[in-house]
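Table 4 source record.
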Amino acid sequence: MEYKFYGWQDAATVKAVNSDYKGIVTPNNLYDALLNIWCEYTCAPRLRGEWSIDNITLGQCSITAFLVQDIFGGEVYGILRPGGNYHCYNIVEDVVFDLTSEQFGDEKLDYENNPVQERNVHFAKEEKRLRYEYLCRELRKYVDGDN
C-alpha cells in the first residue's frame, strides 16, 4: 500500500517500543487506525472551521506526534509556521516521518534543523491535553474492537 504522508516508506521500518496498542506495530499501522479516529473534535480549535473528512489530518499534528512518541519513542520536532505556531512531526532512530503532512497539500515542508517540542509545553494548554487524551482513548477502543 502506498501512503501520502511524508516519510511513509521509511516509517514502515520503525517498530513500536511497546505493545500498548494491539496491532500497532509500525507508524503506517497507526496512520491506518487514525483515519478512523481523527475528527473535528481532535482538530485544533483554531482550524475546526476548515476541517473536513477530505482534509482529515488538518490540525491534528501535535496530539498525533506525541501519540507517535508514546508508541514508537524518538523525538517530536516542530516546523515554525506563519503565525508563530509549530507543525509537529517525528524522528525515531533517524527516520523522519509526519503522519499529518497531507494537510499542507503540495507545500514542501523543511524537516531539517527544527527545534524539539516538549510535551509539557504543548499540554499546558488544557484543550490540547484533552484532545490528546481523547485520541488515546479512541485508539484504545479501536484496537480493542470497541468501535
